[in-house]
Amino acid sequence: MTASTSVSAPSPDTPLAGRVALVTGASRGIGRAAALALAAAGAHVVALARTVGGLEELDDAIRALGGSATLVPVDVKDFDALDRLGRSIFDRWGRLDALLANAGVLGTMTPLAHLDQKRWDEVIAVNVTANWRLVRSLDPLLRASDAGRAVFVTSGAAHRFRAFWGSYAVSKAALEALALTYAAETQTTAVKVSLVNPGPLRTRMRAMAMPGEDPLTLRTPEELAPHLVRLLSPAWEHTGAIYDFPQDKVLWPQPPAPAA
Predict the structure, then answer these.
(1) How many whole angstroms separate alpha carbon 161 and alpha carbon 9?
(2) 48: CB partners within 8 A, 6+ apart
């Protein structure tokens, strides 16, 4: 990282009123908290997850807030379904204003030499290939928005290489390359592309990775969610950067392009 910028507190108003936001991995953890916060901020939430029951519970919670949602029970490894999703969003709204690419898997914690091919393929499919397919499917829709915003969820594992975290670390490093390349390709458009590093949060994935850790010592997805709303709002002007939640800073993997 070569530079950092402090981030002010998220706005308490409804910066996404009338806008359409897609959240993957929306049935629990960061995705669920973000979907609720986006709905509270005025967005119509397109909620994608594998678990129908979890999506229905999310829908009930969004309705209780006075918001609205479209439920998409899809596994992100169903790449053809991601293509159909783009078409469906186009047919209904003609644009997509915000994408939170949150769905991810930890994979097996084991030495690289012991890693099973099937497990490796799953981690790469969910954490990398699915996000590329989302970009391919949704790029025209984000460009059709007056302020398209895309946020991809990364991890400190992409930069801190520890034993047994191989497939996850590789996948998150690749995801960062994907997102930053997409940011460069949309530099002259109204689309802004960011990554977010949540840090240690009280999620199921964290509990799987750190089974001996006391979850009550960790911050929650609900604490992160207002910052995700900010990153997905039209007022957010950074692109090609990583928002680091533990530090509350914007980190630049490379210096931002000079203003035109």
Answers:
(1) 31
(2) 22, 23, 24, 25, 26, 72, 73, 74, 76, 85, 103
Judge whether 168 counts as a catalytic residue. Answer: yes
Could you give the CA distance from residue 165 to residue 143 in angstroms, rounded to a whole number?
A: 35
Q: Which residue's entry shows tokens 């108003």?
A: 13
The predicted-structure confidence for 187-217, as pLDDT tens digits, reads as follows 999 999 999 999 777 767 666 766 777 777 7
Cα 164 to Cα 148: distance, rounded to the nearest angstrom: 37
28-79 pLDDT per residue, tens: 999 999 999 999 999 999 999 999 999 999 999 999 999 999 999 999 999 9
**Cα–chain center distance at 144:** 20
Q: Which CATH number fits domain 17-245: 3.40.1130.10, 3.40.50.720, 3.60.21.70, 3.90.226.10?
A: 3.40.50.720
The catalytic position among 152, 168, 236, 243 is 168
